[in-house]
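Standup notes, structure subgroup. Blocker cleared on the arginine input:
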Amino acid sequence: MADKVVLAYSGGLDTSVAVRWLKERYNLDVIALNVDVGSERDLSAIRQKALDIGAVKTLVAEAKELFVEHFIFPALQADALYEGQYPLATALARPLMAKLLVDAALEEGASAVAHGCTGKGNDQVRFEVSISALAPNLKIIAPAREWGMTREETINYAQRYGIPVPITAASPYSIDANLWGRSIECGVLEDPWVEPPADVFTWTKSPADAPDVPGYVEIGFEQGIPIAIDGQEMGGVSLIQQLNQLAGEHGVGRIDLLENRLVGIKSREIYEAPAAVVLLQAHQALEAMTLSKDQLRFKQKVAVEYADLIYNGLWFSSLHQDLAAYVKSTQRYVTGTVRLKLFKGSCQVVGRKSPKSLYSYGLATYDKGDQFDQSASVGFIHIWGLPLKTQAQAQPPTQDEGPLGIMKPKKTKGKGK
Ligand code: ARG
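Run returned:
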């Protein structure tokens, strides 16, 4: 009996070809594992396809709940956005897939696991770093990195062996999708000057075709976790699905990013992430109301680190454990409701409230009921400005140009008689 390999199988071109290639090249019996993180593909068709190509067995791991609870919501609480824009849908799913792949390999007595990533991307790193943290002795095979075929040659290989090809010349994109978003690259998108054609987008309406009337949505949060839409409580999976639908309808969630891959390449990726964009904005608005200025400032730095470690495949690191504990602690009072307005591609926070709000009407108001002692500002300004005043006198600016050049006393023209 041949050794077994568990392949992370999406049903796309590369992993389909890999089913056949792993048998041919390594004489391994392929067990195709599809991890369902909400890509909304037809799972039974995917399984059948794997069997048709030659897999000895197919497995489906229903992982939407796990994905939301252990990956998406912690990242949301951290406000993780890679390079300020990408909500990390693809990056977040990889460590979960790695874990389920390892579990399946142990269960099935497989000697190896395999994934369909190429040698140019981030996903190979995420898979392999995660797998080796979880099961250091498991062999990892990356067919698409080894076989040295171009995309076209891969398509030819598929056609030669009767493997159905899911992409056509008209739609040459590489797509990855899960609950948290859809990532699209390749084809004309590789020219960063080219505007993404309409057929790139399937989750979001073009803002031009979005409703002429704005949509409003209220998101209820409990300790940084979204729990309700418009007052109706629901589980995380349904909440995200509903928001993807609603915000996508208003053209919200399109992102065009020229990003820095871990492997040193700049690449252009289009994302559709309606729910993620809405939730990240809402969550930040609620934090603005419930965290102190110092907490917010520090948390923003952590958010950058957090996003980087997710992007860079370090989910199972000790640094992550430490940062996650910090993030969780910050969320103690991030409870309340945020109202957002969705209109022709834009998403704006238009209201927020919280039982733990730090916003004090009495301190903020300019109307009667003002509780702020304005006379106390005099002393505050005196002390706050003291070092600056002292320094400006002892060490006046030396440059004529630049932002402080203007501080120099103006030369009055001494006109003699
Ligand atoms: N650039 C994104 C990341 O590294 C997405 C990668 C997968 N994209 C794709 N179109 N298949 O997380």
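Discussed briefly. The mean pLDDT is 95.
Next: hand off to the docking folks.
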